[in-house]
Design goal:
The chain is α/β, with parallel strands linked by helices. It is about 45% helix and about 10% strand. It has a single domain, classed as Response regulator (Rossmann fold, 3-Layer(aba) Sandwich). The two termini are about 25 Å apart. InterPro entries: LMW_PTPase, Ptyr_pPase, Ptyr_pPase_sf.
């Protein structure tokens, strides 16, 4: 059974579908990835500027229809990655028991790197990426708040912003996912 990862942003047209596509490319065949919004633009496609940035990475997501996250989706996810701390809080208001598997994307990336450098978490010999990511999720809540790495855990919403805003958000998402992938592969 694949790990179920849910990415969440506000409208489900920019950040969360970008994160879902980039996660899928980083962990092909390993994860069952979906995205949703806190206040989704119901039925909308991926924002054209995000689609263009994904195409620049040779990623061409299938037809996307934005939707608002459901309690069922949250309850069924093994890992919930939001784009802001505020969204993480909203998720936890809906499903408080999801605390140990809900993080902002950048927070989980930072924690993933910390887990690897801490050396207190051991991987099973020859563990595959799914097993390592599962172990990382299990350990992540213990590392919450312990990082010496500074910076915001939020990826700002580029919607209706400048091309530079879109590029910045996309860069932050891609960098966080690359950090997670590198930690899992270490």
């Amino acid at each position: 059974m694949s790990l179920r990862v849910l990415t969440i942003c506000t409208g489900n047209i920019c950040r969360s579908p970008a994160a879902a596509a980039l996660l899928g490319a980083s962990f092909p065949g390993t994860l069952e990835i979906s995205s949703a919004g806190i206040r989704a633009v119901e039925g909308a496609d991926i924002d054209p500027q995000i689609r263009e940035l994904l195409a620049g990475q040779e990623l061409f997501p299938a037809l996307h229809r934005a939707h608002t996250v459901t309690v069922s989706e949250l309850s069924g996810a093994d890992l919930i990655l939001t784009m802001t701390a505020g969204q993480r809080g909203m998720v936890l208001e809906l499903v408080p028991r999801a605390l140990h598997r809900t993080f902002t994307l950048k927070e989980f990336a930072r924690i993933s790197a910390d887990i690897v450098t801490d050396h207190t978490v051991a991987w099973a010999p020859r563990a595959d990426e799914e097993s390592r990511l599962t172990r990382m999720i299990e350990c992540a809540s213990r590392f919450r708040g312990r990082s010496s790495r500074q910076g915001s855990d939020d990826v700002d919403d580029p919607y209706l912003g400048t091309p530079k805003d879109y590029a910045q958000a996309f860069h932050e998402i891609r960098e966080a996912i690359e950090t997670i992938h590198a930690a899992v592969r270490s």
